[in-house]
Design goal:
Blueprint: H1 7-27, H2 29-45, H3 59-74, H4 79-107, H5 113-120, H6 124-134, H7 143-159, H8 161-175, H9 185-188, H10 190-217, H11 222-234, H12 245-270, E1 277-278, E2 284-290, H13 309-316, E3 320-323, E4 326-327, H14 333-341, H15 358-365, E5 368-373, H16 396-402, E6 405-406, H17 415-425, E7 433-438, H18 471-496, E8 503-509, E9 514-515, E10 523-524, H19 533-539, E11 544-548, H20 550-555, H21 557-566, E12 571-572, H22 576-584, E13 586-587, E14 609-610, E15 614-615
Parallel strand pairs: 2-7, 2-8, 4-12, 5-6, 5-7
Antiparallel strand pairs: 1-13, 3-11, 8-11, 9-10, 14-15
Helix pairs in contact: 1-10, 2-3, 2-4, 2-7, 3-10, 4-7, 5-12
Domain Sulfatase N-terminal: 283-558
Keywords: Cell membrane, Membrane, Transferase, Transmembrane, Transmembrane helix
Membrane topology: Multi-pass membrane protein
Length: 635
Amino acid sequence: MAENITPMKISAKIALISHKLLAPIRANSAFFIFMYLLGILVAYIEIPHQPKATVYANLWAELFLDLYIVCLFLMIFPKHVRRWIRAILYFMLYGISLVDVFCWEKFQTTINPSMLLLVGETNGREASEFFTSYFSKDIFFSNVGLVLLLLLIHILVSRFPLLSRHVSCITRIKEKLPNFYKKPLLIKSIGGILVLIFLVISAISSAHNKEMMRRMFSLRTIGAVERELSLYQRQPGTEAQFYLPPYRLAFAIFSNELASHQIDQLIATKDKVQVDSCTYTTPNIVLIIGESYGKHHSHQYGYFMPTTPRQEALERQGLLVPFRDVVSPYNLTSFVFKNIFSLQVIGDTKDWCDYPLFPEVFRKAGYHVTFITNQFLPRAKQAVYDFSGGFFLNHPELSKAMFDSRNSTLYKYDAGLLNDYDNHQAQNNTEHNLILFHLMGQHVNYGQRTPARAKHFKAEDYKTIRHDLGEKRRQTLADYDNAVLYNDSIVDQIIERFKDKEAIVIYTPDHGEECYEGHRGFICRNHSSNIDYNLARYEFEIPFWIYTSPSYKAKHPEVFQQIIAAKDKKFMIDALPHLLLYLGGIHTKDYRDEHNILSKNYRENRPRILKGTTDYDKLDRSKMEHQVPLRKKKK
């Protein structure tokens, strides 16, 4: 006999299903509530300071869906195991969120692949200096403090019985309302029904973003990721939204692991390097790679403080030629090093690792190549995915292919590199030499870049000319300018070692730097993807010069005239390797004359694309921030 289906039984089944739908949230109620609050809090803290900026449109719904899925996953485990898993998740989620908000507070950027690379290229000394520069009691009164406050409330609610008793008041109220339990089961299950409705809405509204995230994580090369991100920037609204700090961290790790695969390609490429012939036009080529040098803090380029007296003296002697219109393709060391070591140029269809690295070509041609760095050193048992700026420089096989000799010690000040060269490297030089100096330059913390005896500028020197800055900021500005002045002495001493040889010395920093430019109130660099002219001006425009020794100038007047003719041409330093090959007289199929700024075939109007997205020469300059000195406003 068929069982009678009554409305009461239907209500009971609905109530049972609803009860089960609500069970994951009920069993992990504190986790769900506080992680939901954490996600919402971080999202609103990190709203960009731009007109009409707002949080991710699907934030509330997608966060509900994500947390429900996590709670559902937790239900798999016994209660005592679940407690430990939640504790691990708390530690991870609060920790990642704090780091994310800190990055936003200090750099106006959240966790991203570039930030992870910054961590990777930071050694112990730099980490210590970073904490000294950026961590103070003020951080607790910023938005980071709000996240810490939420964490404190969470701990208090979870751990103190006195607070828990207040929660139990709800149960006592229910006990005084016995009629509530006499109502139909459907009414009792209203919470579960609401959960079901919200889950359906959330799943539908979140489907597109989940598909976009899946697509990003399915890419197999870092080049594909970069191209996908570039496409998203040209088509707003289609991009994957990594709207939570854990998602952003996962994407950053994923991107950097893909970058490690480039090592394999670089190894394959090095075995294909071919040199047809070499005339050794320049017996001694010296490349100085500086660090974080803002062009607009160079007196040689019009700055108001005398920060470059030695370079200007060499310019007056007719030996040093500054170039006036040079930019870097990135404002991050890691990316710049790839582009200035590879014979690829921005705009090529293949990835940078599909082309030879220029030191490999010089070695193949018979040059002795020396690399002296104050940042990147080989480390014992280094994994292939060392994601620092020097990951390919420090790989044992690639390092051997590029360099005949290297330094093995880092120094507090860049003068240590000069002593290292004199005592350990100079005796290895041969008839034909390529020598690379990689300085610490003006890397933060600025105050630690200059020995006390070499500090010239003081905060009070800026009291009138930078009246808009407080004492602390004026001191930071003085520290940076002292680092620029000290850098002037270092490059001068490098030149001193080659002035009596037949040599060319080239100087370029990796990128620019901001130090309270105009009214921007900012130091270091902004790793935002949005590049306006002011950001490009201070962080991508760089000083660049070529020095010719007297004997070289006398023996190669045609090269010197080519340098003079090129000094006002547009240039981006991703093409630097082609200039170097030309100066070395190296003939190889990988050399392209149209990228050599000294060539009559140089393609000056090649688009200078910054960070793979922005054409520097097409930026709107109408809202240019006025450079210091600033004038006091009339009352």
